[in-house]
């Protein structure tokens, strides 16, 4: 308890290195099983810019917490840390896949994995990942047919697959549920021009 309070005190005073040193002196069992302590340790490591210590704390937190949302967030922070600060793209893909194992509909995880595969030129993995993501979103839409976020994410995934007809249909369905954003409206207009169909503006002028 003394070391824990000491770590809290150092953090409140802005001394991240001292906080990290104090918390690291706690018994190994406490550093593996106490989610609150691991949150504090991750925060201290982040403030101290110690990527390895933050990675270890987040990994332990994901295993220790009983809160599903916190587990997903810890896995997300691990993936971001691995990609941005450690710079290991292959490890980042694995980290993001652990997010998807908890939530297959996570938009950031799907987008991040696709971006890494595209950057590294792994087109087979990109195709497989996008195909799986589309399947998960379509299955979810069967259960939630009026979900605006699911329609929006599916349209984005289909555009990334270059399945523009399917993306167009999804955007049209989305437009029946909510107001389309400017990018979605522009995509529909481009797709209609590509198919030599009149745009919404042209149809309005004819009326």
List keywords for this structure.
disordered C terminus; mainly alpha; about 80% helix; single chain; about 210 residues; 13 helices
Give a short overview.
The chain has about 210 residues and is an all-alpha fold. It has 13 helices and no strands.
What does this structure look like?
This protein has helices spanning 2-12, 16-24, 30-33, 35-47, 51-64, 68-86, 89-102, 107-120, 123-143, 148-160, 164-175, 182-194, 200-206. The protein is mostly helical and 207 residues long. The protein is elongated, with a radius of gyration of 23 Å. The longest helix has 21 residues, at 123-143. Helices cover 79% and strands 0% of the residues. α5 (51-64) packs antiparallel against α6 (68-86). The protein is built from 13 helices and no strands.
SSE diagram, text form:
Elements: H1 2-12, H2 16-24, H3 30-33, H4 35-47, H5 51-64, H6 68-86, H7 89-102, H8 107-120, H9 123-143, H10 148-160, H11 164-175, H12 182-194, H13 200-206
- Helix content, binned percent: over 70%
Query: Gyration radius, to the nearest Å?
Result: 23 Å
Helix and strand pattern: HHHHHHHHHHHHH
Number of strands: 0
Largest pleated sheet: none
- What overall geometry do the principal axes of the alpha carbons give? elongated
Strand content: under 5%
């Amino acid at each position: 308890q003394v070391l824990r309070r000491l770590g809290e005190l150092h953090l409140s005073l802005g001394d991240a290195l001292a906080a990290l040193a104090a918390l690291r002196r706690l018994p190994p069992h406490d550093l593996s099983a106490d989610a609150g302590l691991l949150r504090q340790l991750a925060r201290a490591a982040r403030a101290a810019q110690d990527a390895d210590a933050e990675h270890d704390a987040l990994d332990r937190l994901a295993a220790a917490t009983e809160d599903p949302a916190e587990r997903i967030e810890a896995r997300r922070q691990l993936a971001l840390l691995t990609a941005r600060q450690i710079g290991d793209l292959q490890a980042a893909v694995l980290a993001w896949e652990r997010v998807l194992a908890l939530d297959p509909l996570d938009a950031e995880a799907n987008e991040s994995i696709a971006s890494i595969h595209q950057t590294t030129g792994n087109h087979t993995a990109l195709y497989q990942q996008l195909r799986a993501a589309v399947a998960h979103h379509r299955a979810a839409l069967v259960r939630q047919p009026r979900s605006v976020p699911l329609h929006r994410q599916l349209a984005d995934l289909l555009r990334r697959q270059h399945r523009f007809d399917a993306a167009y249909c999804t955007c049209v369905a989305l437009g029946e549920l909510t107001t389309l954003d400017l990018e979605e409206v522009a995509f529909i207009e481009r797709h209609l021009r590509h198919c030599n169909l009149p745009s919404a503006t042209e149809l309005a002028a004819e009326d």
